[in-house]
């Protein structure tokens, strides 16, 4: 009888508080203040984002899931089975787990910035798939994608990046990121979810819902900044702004000062005028052809593409050539 496995956990990313603090301060002191969206995801922020995905206005999660449900067999035929399945930004691991019956990976590598976020999810997943080789990898893959050789093993690497997270990168950053993935995907490829351009009211509602959950998610970053740099942001002094920038084909999220105020933290301060904003996130939207061209520029073969009936969202499979 084959013995059931237990998940392995490898922490590669080590938080550098001085570097993190300097990055945050640079963003806040820039004439056009900004904060990286990676600071959204403390424990509360992660729960709030899960709530966002359940909102009627937020179509990406359920639309992508419907594409996988409708076209999963075609995807499996294109991808093949027995791969090392590398889930970038794995979170709860649920999206990847739904594909296991079709893709039958030999190894599952869940990548997130901290393995502590992955412990419960991977232990649960291992119980459900006792013979699968499961690895949790703590890695900040947004700027570097250095995967330990023992994690990849000898399996054919298939990278998985669902949920339209690629939209958080500028097109130039997305190209560089995709090129890094292609370098590490020899013999395999990339399965990626991409949000498509659509009517402005649909886009804006998805990022500014009627219940205010997205607003709470955005405002929660101020609590994170207070914890990380010792600032004295008061969330009640700020309002959430979500808008579609048609010229740049992107949703923008901002926090707007409700009044003139000064934010203090050890060693520095920043005065904000009433109505002045902190830019917290972009989410770029693509046409089908434009994103396919981006994949090819990154060195992938011409991709296969599946969409929903409305053409709101796309899933691409791009083989690494």
Quick structural summary:
By secondary structure, the chain is α/β, with parallel strands linked by helices.
Radius of gyration (Å): 20 Å
Q: In the CATH hierarchy, what is the superfamily of the largest domain?
A: Vaccinia Virus protein VP39
Count of discrete structural domains: 2
CATH arch. level architecture of the largest domain: 3-Layer(aba) Sandwich
Query: Main sheet, how many strands, which sense, barrel?
Result: 8 strands, mixed
How many helical stretches? 10
Instruction: Return the string of H and E elements.
Output: EHHHEHEHEHEHEHHEEEEEHEE
**Class by alpha and beta content:** alpha/beta
Mean pLDDT, all residues: 94
- The residue ranges in which pLDDT falls below 50 over 5 or more consecutive positions are none
Distance between the termini: 40 Å
Share of helix, binned:
25-40%
The total of beta strands comes to 13
User: CATH class of the largest domain, please?
Assistant: Alpha Beta
CATH topology category name of the largest domain:
Rossmann fold
Q: Into which percentage range does the β-strand content fall? A: 15-25%
């Amino acid at each position: 009888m084959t013995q059931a496995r237990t998940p392995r956990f490898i922490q590669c990313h080590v938080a550098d508080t001085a570097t993190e603090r300097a990055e945050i301060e640079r963003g806040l002191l820039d004439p056009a203040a900004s904060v990286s969206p990676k600071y959204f995801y403390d424990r509360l922020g992660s729960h709030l984002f899960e709530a966002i995905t359940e909102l009627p206005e937020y179509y990406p999660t359920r639309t992508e899931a419907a594409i996988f449900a409708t076209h999963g067999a075609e995807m499996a035929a294109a991808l093949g089975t027995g791969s090392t399945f590398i889930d970038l930004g794995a979170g709860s691991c649920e999206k990847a787990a739904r594909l296991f019956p079709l893709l039958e990976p030999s190894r599952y590598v869940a990548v997130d910035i901290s393995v502590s976020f992955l412990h419960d999810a991977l232990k649960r997943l291992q119980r459900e798939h006792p013979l699968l080789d499961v690895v949790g990898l703590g890695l900040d893959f947004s700027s570097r994608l250095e995967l330990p050789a023992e994690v990849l093993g000898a399996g054919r690497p298939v990278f998985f990046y669902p949920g339209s997270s690629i939209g958080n990168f500028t097109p130039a950053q997305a190209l560089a990121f995709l090129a890094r993935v292609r370098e590490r995907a020899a013999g395999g490829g990339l399965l990626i979810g991409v949000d498509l351009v659509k009517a402005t009211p649909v886009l804006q509602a998805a990022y500014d819902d009627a219940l205010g959950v997205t607003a709470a998610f955005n405002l929660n970053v101020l609590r994170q900044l207070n914890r990380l740099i010792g600032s004295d942001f008061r969330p009640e002094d700020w309002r959430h702004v979500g808008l579609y920038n048609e010229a740049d084909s992107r949703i923008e999220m901002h926090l707007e000062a409700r009044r003139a105020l000064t934010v203090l933290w050890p060693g520095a301060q920043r005065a904000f005028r009433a109505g002045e904003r902190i830019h917290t996130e972009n989410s770029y939207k693509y046409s089908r052809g434009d994103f396919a061209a981006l994949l090819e520029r990154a060195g992938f073969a011409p991709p296969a593409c599946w969409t929903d009936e409305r053409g709101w969202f796309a899933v691409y499979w791009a083989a690494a050539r």
